Amino acid sequence: MTKARLLRLSVVLVSIFMILLIIVYWDNVGTAHFYLHTSFSRPRSPGAVAAGEDWEALPDVDEFLAKLLSSSLKQNSSVPRKPEQLLVQGSNKPVLSNLEENVRGYDWSTHKDRNSLDQEKLQVERQRTLREFCANSSFTFPTKERSFDDIPNYELNHLIVDDRHGVIYCYVPKVACTNWKRVMIVLSESLLDQGVPYRNPLDIPREHVHNTSTHLTFNKFWRRYGKFSRHLMKIKLKKYTKFLFVRDPFVRLISAFRSKFELENEDFYRRFAIPMLKLYSNHTNLPTSVSEAFGAGLKVSFSDFIQYLLDPRTEKMAPFNEHWRQVYRLCHPCQIDYDFIGKLETLDEDAAYLLQLLKVDRLLRFPPSYRNRTASSWEDNWFAKIPLAWRQQLYKLYEADFVLFGYPKPENLLKD
Questions:
Q1: What is the domain partition of the chain in residue ranges?
Q2: Average confidence (pLDDT) over 10-25
Q3: What is the mean pLDDT of residues 106-123?
């Protein structure tokens, strides 16, 4: 009788273990690639000698999953691996089918004349600034004090995961995110062209780049892994290389306005331009299509856009659109310890250095910059007709992004 009970108990335990193994190992978790350690790997504790033995104290479930993943790692480490395929560059220049990319164009110069930056010191300084202000109790902003567990899943939709190379990228719209998403697609091989993964980022059509089904993001984990999703997120955040790119907040707003309201964008016209024109320009009976509106000279002004951002009714109706939502709300920099902080102002140098540190610089090149990119020097002209009080309110709205990422306070815009 006792033996029968022990047998049944053994069967149950083995079944539970196999289910967990299937969930964690076979469902594209990427454990076979945990052996890929980049230059960002965290320092090991003195006694740690093997993968999976350098975990800090974790809750029971986290510890079990960590050991399971480490066990899979050891088993896979003996399997011969094919050398990574070099990038087939394809055509040198993309066929631009998107209006925005046609308008801006690409800058194909090599920028060999640019001064090289001491990237290692630059990263240390950027991370030090971020961590100091996250730890500074006198500097506050919404959501700063919450933990990672307090962040709802729908707010984790900007964290793209590449399990093949152990990389997590938090994308920020209007900060070269189209091309970084292309890079992530190439690295993760998440999109095929006639049955073959894309090798050249610029070969990937823009409509596929921004299709949410193309990317594995943290907010999708719940559907795959259920109650284990948050534990797996923490493990990946601990082991993977995490990066984001940021930009001067006011310049990012100008760029968002240019691309979404100065170009004919049907979706943004209906969702945002029509309400703005009605509320702030006193227009009624507006055309239903953006082409008709532009033909009649009905366009949202930059002043309308700023009023919309400052209007307390805006956030009550819905959170800011991702194109003008603050970076601290998109990427949670005080809850996630980023290994690399890039800036659009030094995009070419930062991108080249990051790809080198990720050890994928032989696989691909980062696509070239836009030739007609919104520049910081445009700020004075764009804000010239915006009342001083509005500029000051706008700074308070985006102050956390200025401070956390080391952008100087635009004093010339905030004083008479």
A1: 115-248+327-376+404-413
A2: 58
A3: 62
